Amino acid sequence: MEKIIKKRAISDKAKAERKQAIIETAKKKYVEEKNISIPVSEIAKNAGLAKGTIYLYFKTREAMDLEILRQCIGNCFDKIDSVLNNEISPGRLMEVMSGFASDFLLVRLGSRYNLIMEKCGDYEVVVEFKEYLNTRIEKTASDIMGLFPFIEKRELIELFIGSFSLMIGLCQMAEPAFIARDVLETRGLVNLQLDFETVFPKLLGNLWSDFFSGGNKI
User: Fold this and answer.
1) What's the predicted TM-score (pTM) here?
2) How many contiguous H segments (helices) and E segments (strands) does the chain have?
3) Domain check: are 44 and 131 in the same one?
4) Is 66 found in the same domain as 131?
5) What 3-state DSSP class applies to 165?
6) Whether residue 7 sits in one domain with residue 100
């Protein structure tokens, strides 16, 4: 169990640190157990907190999950931005994007995106998430355009959104509900069985390659 936090967080800094500590505990548990449905009570226990304390920082567990997803998406944009400092090729950019398939939290929480949004129960958290996403995608798209001026910004933004949607859809297909998975396995319906970490990078690579090569752009 994580070290018990005994003192009450009073200052804004202490509250922010505790909130992030809760996030880090949830991330660790999700990854360790390969399960993003771990009870809030278990997350609280591992953070050394009472279950009710979690709800002082997040109105719902979906609000907490949305913040985790926001941070995961932010890390993705950080990785893209870090390689944009060099004169990269479209191939290198696709390689970085494909690597996101191995991010357990990004993929699993992303596959529940709509459900998390619907059950979040905190309008301000949703606004913050959407505004953050809008800002990051705008900045990264502008930076990419600086290296590849033949690209239209709107088309690039649509490519980012399409890539995220591809990830969500493939993950849902690759990890169906138990009854569907049982049917696929027992009936030998191999054409409907997908290996997400193999298929996603390949299809994503095709998507980005078509984008950069379309219309003799490169």
Assistant:
1) 0.86
2) 11, 0
3) no
4) yes
5) helix
6) no
